[in-house]
Amino acid sequence: MLRKLHGKLIKEGLKHTSAKSGNPNAAEVISKVNKPKIDVAIVFADLLQPIIADYKRKGYSQRQMVKALNEEGFTAPEGGKWVLSQLQKVLDRVRLNEVARDLRNTVEPLRANALSDAGIAEELNTKGISSLKRTTWDEAQVKKLLARLEQIKDIELINKFVLDLLPLLHAYRSRGLSAIEMLQEFEAAGLPIRQQATEAVA
Predict the structure, then answer these.
(1) I need a surface site. Which of 14, 130, 165, 176 has the fewest CB within 10 A?
(2) Is 15 exposed, middle or buried (0-12, 13-18, 19+ CB in 10 A)?
(3) Better pLDDT: 192 or 5
(4) Sign of dihedral through CA atoms 68, 72, 78, 81?
(5) Which residues contact 138 (CB under 8 A, 6 or more apart)?
(6) How many other C-beta atoms are found inside a 10 Å radius of the C-beta of residue 168?
């Protein structure tokens, strides 16, 4: 059902794109639609990383990993059985997540110094750091790395927000508050809720 909704939203975005010049807003609409899906894919890769690491320690080939994931009851990213192409995408995400986290403390000071993507690539190559493609760093790889760092930061902020919110939710629930009363409590605690959200709950 979510896959159908996702496809429908993308088609709507593309429908407003002119074949000749393109609609400048279409890319933005599609990007907004894709962001939650990408975030979920990143989190999924993070959750699967320890299992993948275990398979690698055991010397499994990619096909053996697919077989093991199916036999052990792990569901593929969009449901159903695993196939090789799905695993390869997840392996790419796992690697990108690992590289991004490993290089966070190296890359962020370079960005703070307003170094260009090409400059960051040069610095990483000078330090002898392996690139995403295990060749030398270039601007495209740096862009991909920086985008993943931003995505990871967003996910971590959301996780922290949810974890900070849970004790409040439990307290409100134990007091028997309604959804409207909870929203009012959030607003009183400095967490403003948009009007349409309040109306939706009403």
Answers:
(1) 176
(2) exposed
(3) 192
(4) positive
(5) 121, 131
(6) 14
CA within 13 Å, CB half, 87: 19
CA distance 156 to 150: 10
pLDDT tens-digit series, residues 110-140: 888 888 999 999 989 998 888 887 788 999 9
pTM of this prediction exceeds 0.70: no
For 60, other C-beta atoms within 10 Å of its C-beta total 15
The radius of gyration of the chain from alpha carbons, rounded to an integer in Å, stands at 21
CA 157 vs CA 66, 70, 105, 160, 164: distances in Å? 32, 33, 17, 5, 10
Please, are residues 68 and 87 in contact by the beta-carbon 8 Å criterion?
A: no
Residue 7's pLDDT band, with cuts at 50, 70 and 90, is low
Whole-number Å distance between alpha carbons of 179 and 172: 9
Q: In this structure, are residues 119 and 143 in contact, taking their beta carbons and an 8 Å threshold? A: no
Task: Kindly state the tokens that stand for 112.
Answer: 């703070």
Residues 147 and 34: beta-carbon distance below 8 Å: no
